[in-house]
Amino acid sequence: MLNIQKKMSNPFLALLGLPATAVGFALSTQIAALSWILSNKYHLDIHDVAFVWLAGPIAGIFGQVIVGLLSDNVWFMGGRRRPFIIIGGLVSTIAFLTLPHIRGISHITGISDIILIASVIALFLDLSINVTFNPARSIIADLTPEGKVRTSGYVWMQIMSGFFGVFAYFLSMVFGNETLLYIAAGIVFLTAVFPVLFIQEKKEQDEAKAEEQAKFGVAQIFKEIFPLYGFLVFGFFSLFFHFFPLALAAWHNPVLIAALAYSVIIGIIIIIQGLKKASNRNEFQKIMLAHSFTWVAFQSMFILSGFFIENQILPHIHTNITANWFAEKLTGTTQNTGATVGNIVSLGFFILNFIGAIFPLILQSIAKRIGRVKTYICALAFSAIGYFYIAYFSRVEIDFYIGMFLVGIGWSAVISIVFAIMSERVNPAKMGLYMGVFNLAVVLPQMMSNGVANVIKATGNHQLLYIFCGLLVTTSVVFWMFVKEPESSGAVTAVPKGH
Questions:
Q1: I want to staple 284 with a disulfide (CB 3.0 to 4.6 A). Which of 35, 82, 258, 425 is the partner?
Q2: What does the alpha-carbon distance between residue 136 and residue 431 come to, in Å, rounded to a whole number?
Q3: For residues 21 and 15, is the Cβ–Cβ distance under 8 A?
Q4: Could you give the C-alpha distances from 458 to 40, 258, 296, 392, 447, in angstroms and in order?
Q5: Are 399 and 393 in contact (CB under 8 A)?
Q6: d(CA 193, CA 232)
Q7: Nearest 5°: phi and psi at 489?
Q8: Half-sphere exposure of 44 toward its Cβ, with a 13 Å CA cutoff?
Q9: Rounded CA gap, 252 and 249, in Å?
Q10: What ranges do the domains of the chain cover?
Q11: DSSP string, 23-48
Q12: Across-strand partners of 76?
């Protein structure tokens, strides 16, 4: 064991966060490049692009829970989380190398359906990300004590992941999205595979952790995620809607509204139950549902912002485009319309991830004074303000960047603080499993973004994207107001009945 691991020093926490950083860079690359390459190189429309992105949530439904369960109970290649991180990193590398060659793959295989090939590659990419992300987050909880050290571990994870995300968008603006995919293949391979070779995992679980090893089957998983049933139903409806749009057109909006209404009503019921009888299980369900509304917003933003830029901002600007400056100055290449849209999106997400990288330290300091839950609520409120600002005031390039700055404050908390809060509400012996179950609060809501895309396509109103995002994050903020601050301690405590 390295001395830095024994001391739980900052260098070790940074090393511990590198595998999650690889996933963060992979996600940033996917966000920067996937929608752009599908719409500009392969000419898919907004509905088809959103359908391809459904591969991610589908991969997450199966990958996160299964990998979480397996990584809690296996030991090979010298670790419990290590093998899944290494395998996921390798598959991500291959997926990035194949994305620019979808048309070539079509010719070689004889499959003419570009959407099908893109969906399969996106599925493998998302499977690899999901295979890696759960163990990468779980290993931090495994090897750090509850409280300040664990929070610091997730903060370090977000700082590095944020800066690598910033780097991804910078590379996108300078070299273009196709080149970014090749660079990403190398960076993901290096940051996912090699760091875990220097981290020593615990083979033996503590007795206190081993007390609750009851079987956790599919039925129990469905019982745990009942607050997310609305998102699950609409997600599968979206799959059928893609293939039978005319037959199901009349059902689309009613099913979408019913799914959201179910989620809100169940949220209110869970809050009332928590007021009557507090438990870790009730807190976990509140956190899971509040988190789900946040991810409908963020995923919709990631997928559809390019279409918003193209229709709402680009018509108002013709010269002196800031986002094109990097590419034109460093490469001497004049940027066309398609490249301009990609550059503006990349600069906006560059700002979002830059704020996401530096703000965790600020939020950590604030959390020491007012608590992590209140800090999280305040940060998320800035995201809601940012979304509404873009929706109602974004007409030129700078407006979009101002909105992304505000959204970035909430983003810095969404992928750092929330895991520290959630991890103290579940059985430590099943951390990987519960990370997987909790991730369903990310992947199932992501499937709702297909519904957002369908509404925008039907109405032709791209402003609706950020109006929806603002309303969804505001709903999340309201639910978070009823989440209780966990009492952290250095020792493992017994988990109340229900988890």
A1: 425
A2: 12
A3: no
A4: 21, 19, 19, 20, 18
A5: yes
A6: 33
A7: -150, 160
A8: 26
A9: 5
A10: 10-198+219-480
A11: HHHHHHHHHHHHHHIIIIIS---HHH
A12: 79
Nearest to 494 by CA among 406, 427, 402: 427
The CATH H-level superfamily of 10-198+219-480 is MFS general substrate transporter like domains (1.20.1250.20)
> Given its phi and psi angles, is residue 456 left (phi above 0), alpha (psi -120 to 50 degrees) or beta?
alpha
Question: Tokens representing 476?
Answer: 């999340």
Rounded-to-integer distance, Cα 323 and Cα 346, Å: 8
Distance CA 438, CA 118 (A): 27
pLDDT in tens, 304-340: 898 899 888 888 876 778 888 877 776 667 777 777 8
Proportion of the chain above pLDDT 90, given as a percent: 19
User: How do residues 16-47 score in pLDDT, each as one tens digit?
Assistant: 888 888 888 888 888 778 777 777 777 777 77
Q: Nearest CA to 379 among 423, 422, 418, 421?
A: 418
CA distances from 453 to 5, 40, 466 (A): 46, 17, 12
Using alpha carbons, select from 65, 37, 86, 330 the residue that is nearest to residue 196.
86
DSSP strand E in 296-370: where?
none
Spatial contact of 150 and 423, defined as CB atoms under 8 Å apart: yes
Is the backbone of residue 487 left (phi > 0), alpha (psi -120 to 50) or beta? beta
- pLDDT confidence of 63, banded at 50, 70, 90? low
3-class secondary-structure state, position 252: helix
User: What band does 205 get if pLDDT is binned at 50, 70 and 90?
Assistant: low
Transcribe 336-348 into DSSP letters: -HHHHHHHHHHHH
Tell me the two tokens of residue 214: 């009851």
Specify the amino acid at residue 172: S
* Integer Cα distance of 298 and 85 in angstroms: 25
- For 77, the 3-state DSSP assignment is coil
From residue 493, how far is each of 154, 214, 484, 496 by CA, in Å? Answer: 20, 18, 17, 9
Task: Measure CA of the first residue to CA of the last residue in the chain; give whole Å.
Answer: 32
Residue 121 burial (C-beta neighbours within 10 Å; 0-12, 13-18, 19+): buried
Rounded CA gap, 371 and 145, in Å? 18
Do the Cβ atoms of 45 and 306 come closer than 8 Å? no
Helix or strand (DSSP H, E) at 401: helix 397-414
Q: Rg (Cα) of the chain, in Å, rounded?
A: 22
Predicted local confidence at residue 204, as pLDDT: 64
Report the interhelical angle of 148-175 vs 114-143 (nearest 10°). Answer: 150
Three-state SS string over 442-458 comes to: HHHHHCCHHHHHHHHHH
Query: Minimal CA–CA distance to 177: which of 40, 53, 45, 292?
Result: 40
